[in-house]
Amino acid sequence: MAGPAASSSAASHEWDACRRDARKLEGEVDMKLGAYAKLCATFDGSPAAHGPHGGPSTDQLLRAKASEIESLLQRLSDVNERMGGSVPSGDHGRLHTLARHRDILQDYGQEVRRLNASVGAARDRAELMARSEEGAPHVSVQVQGALLRERNTIASSTAAIDEVIGSAHAVEAELKDQRRVFEGIGDRLYALGSRFPVVNGLLRAIARRKSRDTIVLSVVVSACILVLLVFLWRR
């Protein structure tokens, strides 16, 4: 009896620890994502942003912050997976909380992809302009604009595909949670089914005992009636 209780207590402690870690990581991601968004808004991909003298360039800062955020998102994803593994079967409250944390992670991922696409478009635009000025004067402004629009279209399509993939991962996680719930229900039904033969055997034993007691009682009552009749007849 102590085994399941100890296991449940360990799962509860694991859930609480993961929940604290998730909230802490979400706070860090939110703070760093805000700073990253402000830096992205000021980045135009110009040569000055790529190679200033003294201190890191804006481009270097962007790459460093993007790497930090990706690392935090990976850690948050790992924590969410640990949370999913510590949810007891049928605990709909915790499943709802877990789904909320996964939605937050998905929103962060979509925002990071959007900002990265914006930075990538700025870099491509600056690189295209630099090539045009240095060695390709025949490339007209109209062609440059068309290429940039095509690049932005591809980036938007890629971001949309990433969102669809993220939604698919979220649905997959929900289905896994539901499967875990159904597996828990199945285990309980199996456990009850395994107990039914014992219960049925006990009921049959009780029925046999009751039938035997009924027969004994009938014999005793019949004997008493017979003795009473004999006594009355002899009087």
Automatic annotation (TrEMBL):
<comment type="similarity">
    <text>Belongs to the GOSR1 family.</text>
</comment>
<comment type="subunit">
    <text>Component of several multiprotein Golgi SNARE complexes.</text>
</comment>
<dbReference type="Pfam" id="PF12352">
    <property type="entry name" value="V-SNARE_C"/>
</dbReference>
<comment type="function">
    <text>Involved in transport from the ER to the Golgi apparatus as well as in intra-Golgi transport. It belongs to a super-family of proteins called t-SNAREs or soluble NSF (N-ethylmaleimide-sensitive factor) attachment protein receptor.</text>
</comment>
<dbReference type="InterPro" id="IPR023601">
    <property type="entry name" value="Golgi_SNAP_su1"/>
</dbReference>
<dbReference type="GO" id="GO:0006906">
    <property type="term" value="P:vesicle fusion"/>
</dbReference>
<keyword id="KW-0472">Membrane</keyword>
<keyword id="KW-0653">Protein transport</keyword>
<dbReference type="GO" id="GO:0005484">
    <property type="term" value="F:SNAP receptor activity"/>
</dbReference>
<dbReference type="GO" id="GO:0031201">
    <property type="term" value="C:SNARE complex"/>
</dbReference>
<keyword id="KW-0813">Transport</keyword>
<keyword id="KW-0333">Golgi apparatus</keyword>
<dbReference type="GO" id="GO:0000139">
    <property type="term" value="C:Golgi membrane"/>
</dbReference>
<dbReference type="GO" id="GO:0048219">
    <property type="term" value="P:inter-Golgi cisterna vesicle-mediated transport"/>
</dbReference>
<feature type="transmembrane region" description="Helical">
    <location>
        <begin position="214"/>
        <end position="233"/>
    </location>
</feature>
<keyword id="KW-0812">Transmembrane</keyword>
<dbReference type="GO" id="GO:0005797">
    <property type="term" value="C:Golgi medial cisterna"/>
</dbReference>
<protein>
    <recommendedName>
        <fullName>Golgi SNAP receptor complex member 1</fullName>
    </recommendedName>
</protein>
<dbReference type="GO" id="GO:0006888">
    <property type="term" value="P:endoplasmic reticulum to Golgi vesicle-mediated transport"/>
</dbReference>
<keyword id="KW-1133">Transmembrane helix</keyword>
<dbReference type="GO" id="GO:0015031">
    <property type="term" value="P:protein transport"/>
</dbReference>
<dbReference type="GO" id="GO:0005801">
    <property type="term" value="C:cis-Golgi network"/>
</dbReference>
<keyword id="KW-0931">ER-Golgi transport</keyword>
